[in-house]
């Protein structure tokens, strides 16, 4: 008989609707997920994820160029967009109601509480267990659809580890069907950065794959970029939580919002930092060990959590990160741990430590484990903006959680607090945590349906190296599965937009057309906030998920025509240089010596923007955008159509895939 205490693994229907009932697709972002009660506390408070307002739809799909063939341009772009939804096996999932219907395969489920008579205090207010899906589990739920099955058929089925990344790249054949070039340098740049650029590709070729990876694994040795030096123009980034609290009145007068400036600064680093692998890992951990930017207390504490927990340990040790997180005011307030005491136990943090941040929903813990962990963690909280351990609120008595046991009877507050650290370290090093982290990393870097062979090896590396991050990444980049998975990841909305800024070579300095309209904020700060606001429209921005589960990291969670078109429109604005807070390369200058014929010009522009040739079909579609034949002679402006042509290339699958 199954253990009645084990939290049930419940597949859900994305969108929260009953299978068979057709619900209109969301205009952007992942479909909303019905999670039921998620937040459990002494007051019985149940907070639901908020839904953001609808996106802008198709604001200016046709308003480029002189109107000589707007209908043809729209058809060509839509055709490219359908191709851009390429999944493994080369199948094109156009954004249609039929394709969106692929999301309705999973069965819905409800949270059910187990009744346990084990002598430990009952759950406060009789609340049900959390139904927040874990980072890995929600990905698997999405991938249970027919679209996920199609992706899985094209994923590498097995592999091995080589002596290093370069050796693995050289000796791994790429057999999957994909429109992406089977160029290992381009593949590495697409996965280990937020988007390939001519400079990144040149650096990898000049340094060699092994040297470039080693350099990225030591980000502290990479000098800050000019844009990172300009982060001084976001003054709250350098403030401690105490300084933010002390200066709150002055910050309010200046209109400074620390939690938003943190997101702005993160976007600047993603676009312009040379420490690209580090920034990818910061984003990964901010989804895995997720604390939302927008929560009550985030304005004072979330930037410190990013700096002192996630960024400090992103290339270090996950157990150290989890221990630090559990003593940080941001996490303690976000999950109501400050309210938990021996006579009124709050389970939120104890549950999410197990379900989301360590072993995972199927990691072997029971409801008894959750309650025991919640008892052990009583007394931890925040006082005057700082972490405190209140021994008078701490439960004393023997605890046993997933094999961790301790008398927990010390009268010394320091020793009692250290027992909690020992428990957090224990679950961070648990075999289920090793597998959970391994699968999440493989999903981020390799495939939406990562091969079991790779997950098994990464889990072993995690265990042997006690949760150290660098050995995990080196093993991943030295695996045949990584190099065989060309074209098996689709960029999420934020990744698409950041990659667009990067490949267009947008600069952080203000352009000549900028006019200062805000005396309190620099051009750079204003421009970053505009990017931030655009990503809110698209449904994904750094640390933006309101619930503790982080954003899903699989293609089928983000399938949306509105998101795709909105991203294309932003690309059009960048090509036109419409965000005057930044500098741009004029579209007719993107190719240094434009060829005289239209077909050759498209080839050269594709090489510049997506770093490879397009297929014959895509090339012809783009020529259709301009309304010319391949042999037609054109000038550097493509006879006035260069912006439309560049935009169409950025709508191609070669830019949507990574």
Walkthrough of the structure:
With 658 residues, the protein is mainly α. Among the domains are: 135-484, no CATH class; 588-656. The chain is built from 30 helices and four strands. The chain has helices spanning 70-84, 97-100, 135-142, 146-153, 165-171, 184-192, 198-207, 209-216, 226-229, 241-246, 248-254, 258-272, 276-288, 298-313, 318-325, 329-334, 348-355, 367-376, 413-428, 431-445, 452-464, 469-477, 480-484, 493-503, 523-538, 561-576, 598-609, 616-626, 642-650, 653-656; strands at residues 380-383, 386-389, 399-401, 404-406. The strands form two sheets. It has a two-stranded antiparallel sheet. Strand 1 and strand 2 form a beta hairpin. The radius of gyration is 25 Å and the shape is globular. 55% of the residues are buried.
| Major beta-sheet overview | 2 strands, antiparallel
Query: What percent of residues are in strands?
Result: under 5%
Task: Report the structural category.
Answer: mainly alpha
Query: What value does the Rg take, in angstroms?
Result: 25 Å
Mean pLDDT: 82
Helical percentage: 40-55%
Please state how the strands of the largest beta sheet are arranged side by side: 1-2
Cα shape:
globular
DSSP strand count: 4
End-to-end Cα distance: 45 Å
Q: Low-confidence parts lasting 5 or more residues at pLDDT below 50?
A: 1-68, 84-134
The number of helical runs is 30
Give the tags:
658 residues; mainly alpha; two-stranded antiparallel ribbon; disordered N terminus
């Amino acid at each position: 008989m199954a253990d009645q205490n084990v939290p049930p693994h419940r597949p859900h229907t994305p969108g929260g609707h009953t299978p068979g009932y057709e619900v209109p697709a969301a205009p952007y972002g992942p479909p909303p997920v019905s999670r039921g009660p998620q937040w459990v506390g002494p007051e019985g408070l149940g907070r639901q994820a908020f839904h953001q307002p609808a996106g802008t739809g198709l604001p200016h799909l046709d308003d480029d160029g002189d109107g000589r063939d707007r209908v043809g341009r729209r058809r060509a772009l839509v055709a490219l967009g359908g191709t851009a939804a390429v999944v493994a096996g080369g199948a094109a999932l156009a954004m249609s109601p039929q394709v969106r219907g692929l999301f309705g395969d999973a069965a819905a489920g409800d949270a059910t509480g187990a009744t346990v008579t084990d002598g430990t205090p009952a759950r406060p207010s009789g609340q049900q267990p959390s139904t927040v899906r874990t980072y890995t589990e929600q990905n698997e739920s999405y991938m249970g659809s027919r679209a996920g099955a199609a992706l899985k058929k094209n994923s590498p089925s097995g592999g091995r580890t080589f002596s290093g990344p370069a050796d693995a790249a050289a000796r791994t054949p790429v057999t999957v069907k994909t429109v992406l070039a089977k160029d290992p340098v381009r593949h590495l740049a697409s996965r280990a950065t937020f988007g390939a650029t001519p400079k990144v590709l040149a650096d990898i070729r000049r340094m060699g794959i092994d040297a470039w990876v080693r350099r990225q694994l030591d980000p502290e040795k990479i000098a800050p970029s000019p844009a990172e030096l300009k982060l001084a123009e976001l003054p709250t980034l350098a403030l401690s939580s105490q300084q933010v609290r002390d200066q709150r009145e002055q910050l309010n007068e200046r209109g400074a919002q620390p939690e938003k400036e943190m997101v702005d600064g993160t976007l600047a680093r993603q676009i312009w930092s040379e420490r690209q692998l580090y920034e990818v890992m910061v984003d990964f951990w901010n989804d895995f060990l997720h604390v939302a930017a927008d929560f009550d207390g985030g304005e004072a504490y979330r930037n410190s959590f990013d700096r002192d927990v996630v960024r400090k340990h992103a290339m270090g040790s996950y157990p150290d990160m989890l221990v630090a997180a559990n003593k940080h005011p941001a996490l303690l307030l976000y999950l109501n741990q400050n309210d938990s005491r021996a006579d009124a136990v709050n389970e939120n943090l104890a549950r999410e430590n197990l379900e989301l941040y360590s072993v995972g929903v199927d990691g072997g813990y029971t409801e008894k484990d959750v309650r025991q962990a919640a008892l052990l963690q009583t007394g931890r909280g925040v006082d005057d903006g700082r972490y405190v351990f209140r021994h008078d609120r701490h439960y004393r008595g023997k605890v046993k959680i997933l094999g961790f046991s301790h008398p927990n009877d010390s009268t010394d507050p320091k020793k009692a607090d250290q027992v909690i650290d020992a428990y957090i370290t224990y679950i961070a090093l648990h075999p289920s945590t090793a597998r959970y982290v391994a699968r999440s990393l493989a999903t981020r870097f390799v495939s939406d349906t990562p091969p079991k062979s790779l997950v098994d090896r990464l889990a072993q590396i995690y265990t042997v190296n006690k949760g150290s991050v660098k050995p995990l990444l080196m093993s991943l980049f030295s695996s045949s599965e990584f190099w065989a998975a060309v074209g098996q990841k689709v960029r999420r909305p934020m990744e698409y937009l950041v990659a667009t800024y990067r490949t267009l070579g947008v600069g952080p300095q203000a352009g000549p057309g900028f006019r200062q309209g805000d005396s309190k904020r620099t051009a750079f700060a204003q421009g970053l906030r505009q990017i931030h606001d655009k990503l809110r429209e698209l449904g994904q921005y750094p640390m933006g998920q309101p619930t503790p589960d982080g954003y899903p990291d699989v293609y089928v969670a983000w399938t949306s025509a509105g998101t795709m078109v909105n991203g294309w429109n932003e690309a059009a604005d960048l090509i036109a240089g419409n965000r005057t807070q930044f500098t741009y390369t004029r579209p007719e200058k993107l190719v240094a010596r434009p060829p005289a014929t239209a077909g050759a010009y498209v080839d050269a522009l594709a090489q510049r923007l997506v770093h490879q040739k397009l297929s014959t079909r895509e090339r012809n579609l783009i020529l259709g955008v301009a309304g010319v034949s391949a042999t037609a002679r054109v000038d550097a402006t493509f006879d006035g159509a260069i912006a439309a042509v560049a935009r169409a290339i950025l709508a191609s699958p070669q830019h949507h895939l990574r």
